Amino acid sequence: MSRRPLYAFAAAATALALTLSGCASSTPEDAPEAAASASFPVTIEHAFGETTIDDQPERVVTLGWGSTDAAIAVGIVPVAIPFDGYAGDENGVLPWVAEALDEMGEEIPVVLPAGDEPAYEDIAAAEPDVILATYSGITEEQYDLLSEIAPVVAYPGEAWATPWRELIETTGTALGKSDEATQVLEDIDTSVAEAAAAHPEFEGKSIALTSDTAGVFYVYKKEDPRVEFTLDLGFVNAPAVDELANGDSTFFYMLSYEELDKLESDVAVNFAATQEEADGFLSASYSQVMPQVQNGTVASVVGPAFVASVSPPTALSLPWGLDDYVALLSEAALAADAAN
């Protein structure tokens, strides 16, 4: 199962085309009430119907993106987690997950083998009380098979499209940890607000988030989660991003190299899997028409882990990558001041 177009440059547009959107997993009134008291059963609506969890889960299996992080962030270590072949280590474990578990004094859970199909036998062997696939690409058939093992919380709308905040909230509801989930979100909001306050050079500057991989140039729309939280730092979405947009996706579009001169903004972010890829974009003949390249106001986010930490952010990855991301943005924003 793949994620969304910019999380995995290695898999080009599909590997990171995690289209985020979706409807609520439970009503705003019901979710906090059910989880705040940790009362069960709880019922969570999703794309395949609804799932009722009779008792507070103790053994949790996570699939897809972000559910592992959210569970750990609210204090629950899963018994089995997905293999991440893009930003994970040789064992498929993401760096922020490994660090969080180390801080908790916990061992790495069973890492499920990667594949187009869920590892049903391995999941069953983990004896889960619940399977969290809130941000995933499982099909209805796969959902039905997984449901024979344990209750499954699927995505609320489109596959690979659950808003990262909603994922954390849904995880809190499913695990009887809504208070903890609320605190996780408040802590993240505080960190982002503090970063914005510490960098007044961000305020009001226009920004465009992009990637250039395998001969295709992507521009990320304001609906994309990495753009959303970047704007929370004080930037504004460049008008050109909206003006040049087409119907490729809710969250991104492809822009021809011939039109790069039209993508005007004070600052640009370019996501790249390797330093070679980042340098190749900055030195390419087609990028020289971009005002951001001419003015040295491109912030290059380089490396699978760094890219994945904001694509989209999770309960653990956003705090993990925030300082480095802010430092790159600050350098580009100050360069924009100098250019003006």
Task: Please describe the topology of this protein.
Blueprint: H1 12-15, H2 30-36, E1 42-46, E2 49-53, E3 60-62, H3 67-73, E4 80-82, H4 95-104, E5 110-112, H5 120-125, E6 130-132, H6 140-147, E7 152-153, H7 164-175, H8 178-198, E8 206-213, E9 216-220, H9 225-231, E10 236-237, H10 239-243, E11 252-254, E12 267-272, H11 275-283, H12 291-295, E13 298-302, H13 304-309, H14 317-339
Parallel strand pairs: 3-6, 4-5, 6-7, 8-10, 8-12, 12-13
Antiparallel strand pairs: 1-2, 8-9, 9-11
Helix pairs in contact: 2-7, 3-4, 7-8, 8-14
How would you describe what is shown here?
This protein is α/β, with parallel strands linked by helices and 340 residues long. It folds into two domains: 169 residues, Nitrogenase molybdenum iron protein domain (Rossmann fold, 3-Layer(aba) Sandwich), CATH 3.40.50; 150 residues, Rossmann fold (3-Layer(aba) Sandwich), CATH 3.40.50. The chain contains 14 helices and 13 strands. Strands 8, 9, 10, 11, 12 and 13 form a six-stranded mixed beta sheet that branches. The radius of gyration is 20 Å and the shape is elongated.
Instruction: Name the beta content range.
Output: 15-25%
Biggest sheet statistics: 6 strands, mixed
Q: How would you classify the helix and strand content by structural class?
A: alpha/beta
Instruction: Outline the low-pLDDT stretches.
Output: 1-37
Quaternary state reads single chain
Question: If you average the pLDDT, what whole number results?
Answer: 90
Q: Would you count the extended β strands for me?
A: 13
Order of SSEs: HHEEEHEHEHEHEHHEEHEHEEHHEHH
Instruction: Give the terminus-to-terminus CA distance.
Output: 46 Å
Coarse shape = elongated
CATH topology of the largest domain: Rossmann fold
**Top CATH class of the largest domain:** Alpha Beta
Please tell me how large the radius of gyration is.
20 Å
CATH architecture annotation name of the largest domain: 3-Layer(aba) Sandwich
Helix content: 25-40%
Family: Belongs to the bacterial solute-binding protein 8 family.
Organism: Glaciihabitans tibetensis
Keywords: Signal, Transport
Pfam family, one: Peripla_BP_2
